[in-house]
Every structure is written in C-alpha cells, then in structure tokens.
Amino acid sequence: MNFMLKNAGFGGRRIVSMAAAAGMLLAGAGAASATTVVKWLHLELDPKNVAAWEDIVKKYEAQHPDVDIQMQFLENEAFKAKLPTLLQSDDVPDFFFSWGGGVLKQQSETGALQDVTAALDADGGKLRKAYTPASVDGLTFDGKTWAIPYKVGLVSFFYNKALFAKAGVKAEDIKTWTDFLAAVKKIKAAGIVPIAGGGGEKWPIHFYWSYLVMREGGQKVFEAAKNGEGEGFLDPAIIKAGDDLAELGKLEPFQPGYLGATWPQTLGVFGDGKAAMILGFEATEANQRKNAGDGKGLSPDNIGRFVFPTVEGGAGKPTDTLGGLNGWAVTKKASKEAIDFLAFLTNAENERAMAKAGMLLPVAVGADDGVVNPLLAESAKQLAGSTWHQNFFDQDLGAAVGRVVNDVSVEIVSGQMNSKDGAQMIQDAFELEQ
Hints:
This protein starts with a helix and ends with a helix. Helix content is 47%, strand content 13%. The chain has 19 helices and 13 strands. Residues 1-33 have low confidence and may be disordered. Helix 10 crosses helix 18 (399-413), helix 11 packs across helix 19 (419-433) and helix 18 runs antiparallel to helix 19 (419-433). The protein is globular. It folds into 2 domains: 2-151 and 326-390, D-Maltodextrin-Binding Protein, domain 2 (3-Layer(aba) Sandwich), CATH 3.40.190; 156-322 and 397-433, 3-Layer(aba) Sandwich (D-Maltodextrin-Binding Protein, domain 2), CATH 3.40.190. The strands form 4 sheets. It has a 6-stranded mixed beta sheet, with helices on both faces. It has helices at residues 2-5, 18-27, 47-63, 76-86, 102-108, 117-125, 133-137, 161-167, 177-189, 203-226, 236-250, 263-271, 284-291, 336-345, 348-356, 374-384, 393-396, 399-413, 419-433, and strands at residues 36-42, 67-73, 95-99, 140-141, 144-145, 148-152, 156-160, 277-280, 303-306, 320-322, 325-330, 361-362, 388-390. By secondary structure, it is of the alpha/beta class. Pfam families: SBP_bac_1 (PF01547).
C-alpha cells in the first residue's frame, strides 16, 4: 500500500543521512574499535517519536557501554528507491523498518535478510512469547520469521453517535452482515448518508472485500488461495464475499461522488458530519479532525467504534482482524547486539511507553494497557485477542495482484463487475506472478 509509506519521515538529533553516516563511521573508526556499532535505518518524520526512541537508545547504551546505536534516516521515496542497493552494499543497516506481507516476503527472498526464528525461540522461546502470536505469524513465511514485530494496525468501523441516534440505530446491535445492511437501510431512510467511501484511491474499498473474504472463508481459504492451492481465488467462499459486497453496493450507501473521493476527502466527509460511518484505521478519530472543513471535526465523545460484522454461515471468526503489521527486518550480517537491542526496543515496558505517547498499537504482550485514547484502547484490546491478524490484502499479495484486488473491489461495489468475474481477474493476476 503506497499510502502507508507517506507516514514516514524525519526528526531527531541522532539522525544522520546515509552518506553522512558512512563518513562518520570512517572518521571514528579508531575511537570506536572496541565498540559494536548497530545501524538503525528508519523513516520516522515526527520529532517527538524520534525523541522517544532516543531515550530508549540512551537507556540501552547505559546498560551496554560497548554498543553504539546509530539512527539513520532516509526519506520514504529515497528508501523505496535505495533500499535494494543498500542491502547489497558495505553500508548495509543492521535493521530497518518493514511492512508485513508481500513486501517483507520479497525482501526475504533477496537473501539479504536474517531469519530471526532461532532468536525468537532461544531460551525456551522467551522472545517469541513476548509478542502476540498474531504479530509473529504475520511476519512468518514457510515457518521462518523475517522481522521482529514492532506495531500493528486495525481496520474497523467508526460511527457518528448523533447520526446513529437520529436514525434510531444502535451500534451494539450490529453483529452480522445482515444487521449491518439493515442499519444502512435505516440510516438512509432517515435522510442520512450511511457511509463515507473513498473510491478514488480504490484501496479504502478493498477493506470491505478483504474483510468479507476473511469472514466467509476464514484463514484456511485465504491461505490456500495465496499459496496457489485448491480453487484459489475462485473458491466459492471468496465469490460469496464478492456477492456480499455487491449487495451492499446496491443500497448505494456512499456519499455522491465517492468514486472520485481521495482518502483525505473521505475522512473530511465523516469529520464534517456528512456520513454516519466510515471503515478506517485506528487513527481515524485523529485524522478526521485534520481533514474536516473546520479543522476540528467530530468531538471524540461523538465517535463510536464497532468490529467488522460476521457473516452467517461463514468460516471466519469475529476475532479475526485486518490491518497493518510492521516490524524491524534484520539484515544478514547483523550482530547479536542488533537483535538484543530490538528485543529491548520492543519489550513490554518500552512498547507501553510508546503506546502512551500515541506512537503505536503495541505487539508486546501486556503492553496494550498503555493505550490511553478510548477508541485506540478498544482497538488495542481487540488486537490483543486476535485469532488471526491479516495484513492488508493489497500488501500481502504483492503490488501487481494488490492493484487488481483494489480495482475489483471498486468495480464490484459500484455494480460494474460481478463477483465471479472479479475473482477470476484476481486469480489470473495471481497466476501471472507465479
């Protein structure tokens, strides 16, 4: 998902460019001969977040005076362009920020990454047990884990409490897809736009198709499809998911012009009170304020949240979740000190502190109590109990197949394509990549 990279950036006193870092290392080679240097490549823009990391680095270095953690920064576009070359260079970082799913899988296949499975399983699996199982599973391919978990995201519904009350709809009554469709009809009958939809960038609509595939088929069906097994994306449960989405589309639930709406515009529609619901990320409450016409948006106490509904007869569990998953990919020649620092960076104490600062939804077991924002706390609680956390389909399946998933999702919900043809397009794209 290209939009995910837009959250990257710059900040902090310890940060140096890659070129500057190389010069510094050469200049200080003599003085640092007894020190293990650990190079950390990141894309963080917010100076407050970098400052929080710096504090963690200071604590670690105080406990390990023979280790020097050097934070290095690359702007997101430069990161995408230069990372493949960097991974094969003499200036390779010890670890770097990565996305789960297809992105990490492709990076693992280059031979540049270190399989961290043994590190997770050492000492009776001490490090593995420090993270939620779903977060480790999301960074694992063919039994090998390729990154240390860092943070997780969650897609769920957010709603305008005042508009729900006006329409006589109760969020707690929305448990199944049938309940959801009934709520959409009731909201629309009250003269209110049910859902803020972002069809212009397409990926926001793929959340619906993805979740419905998860609810209809469950993990077994999706895993089989992406592994080229069974009927693939032509599995009846996947076609049924498309039918469910088409059923929603027939109700015309989105605002006029949604097919051209960008995600910021969609957030603005919700923030301006012009739609009752939005299917978005954990940061929706904060982001709707930024994109509302008045810059204030809906007050936090007017926003509620509910889990994506189940589907009657579907194999998926209500505790299966969809959202982003990020980790720190460790490079082939990284030292044991690099992994030791990552274990420290992502331990429950530090993840709890970062959660309190609003930096992340934690993956460390027991750290979810650090989330103080009520809506974020709900997301953290749901994620802590996730039975299967699936990374965004358009990331997990790779860029080429992901684009088709996004296209098909929009065409199905807008009535331009039936679900079987959509499934066939995705299957054809998948086979082309094999």
